[in-house]
């Protein structure tokens, strides 16, 4: 009997271990099954933006058919947004930068909220905190980079900031590592798949939103015209494509966005090129728009007063050979006077007309995947903030790459920042070399 009991003990232990293992596997499987999406149920928990209309406006337009009701609501709030944008421009570069930051935070919130709804995290409050922590860390890194690029002279005079400037990237990395360790420590057995999925979701949102807003800020520093013209082109293209599609649209353009038509796409494209050139011509005449934003030590503030560069001074161009028959017919000159920036404006208008809409198609595909109409319901007739800025982020990246590739020259602020990071003896060597060079060229008196 004793021997039988001895045999049964290991068998019972093995059976218990196997049962425990099966239960653990079952728990994990159930957890992963719980991650499978019921898209129809999910759609009910997310905002359906364009259906959200102020009660007063809704009652005033109650007699109109739904198609025209949407047209009127969309038109009213389009003009309100354009008017608000003009007021922000009047407020200057700081107002624009603050607006970019606010829009960035709101777009991030809309994307992250969809992620929370998709993966249905319960009882894991740390992950919501982690998402916002990574947003703050990313902004610290990117906005710090901008501050060092454009305000290096001022910052280096402040002793208490010198450490943060010198080791900015290391500090940023340490902040990110804290978030990374925090995430690993917050992992819960039954929610591994959900937590890692949301971790990836957060980082994609940061890539789309924070990185692009950093590029927008860089564009603003190059001159307001590099921000206002591209943004306006996307707005013009969106509005005119909607108008042409509403009145003349017959031929579907893409399955991802059934309401988009070839008529709207083409009409919006030609309108963007024409109106974009007119806007560029008008803005090139004002220093407020064309001057880079730099810190003026004498004034103790940011300044936009400069001698306009070659791009913003009228130049005479000879017409291409294949177009010279037109002046000969009307007895005109075969040259044309225009601002060189208008040629760059033409490139931006073509991009915003042909490639820009694909940012909207991408967002449409994302929304259709989860059977939602819009990212939010902040703007009646339009949806969420992300619905209005899906194409803007793509455009911002193009403009930044375009400036870097074809326009940009090294700024004194960036060069000075590199000089300040040198050792004292290296700074003296650089100063002596630069002084000798200026004296040899007769630009500096040898005294």
From TrEMBL:
UniProt record, GO biological process: CDP-diacylglycerol biosynthetic process
Reactions catalysed according to its record: a 1,2-diacyl-sn-glycero-3-phosphate + CTP + H(+) = a CDP-1,2-diacyl-sn-glycerol + diphosphate
Stretches that traverse the bilayer: 71-90, 126-143, 163-185, 197-217, 223-249, 261-282, 341-363
InterPro entries: PC_trans, PC_Trfase_euk
GO annotations of cellular component type: endoplasmic reticulum membrane
EC number: 2.7.7.41
Pathway connected to this protein: Lipid metabolism; Phospholipid metabolism; CDP-diacylglycerol biosynthesis; CDP-diacylglycerol from sn-glycerol 3-phosphate: step 3/3
Membrane topology note: Multi-pass membrane protein
Keyword flag Nucleotidyltransferase: yes
Disordered: annotated segments: 1-35
Keyword terms: Lipid biosynthesis, Lipid metabolism, Membrane, Nucleotidyltransferase, Phospholipid biosynthesis, Phospholipid metabolism, Transferase, Transmembrane, Transmembrane helix
GO molecular function: phosphatidate cytidylyltransferase activity
Protein family (similarity comment): Belongs to the CDS family.
Name of the protein described by the UniProt record: Phosphatidate cytidylyltransferase
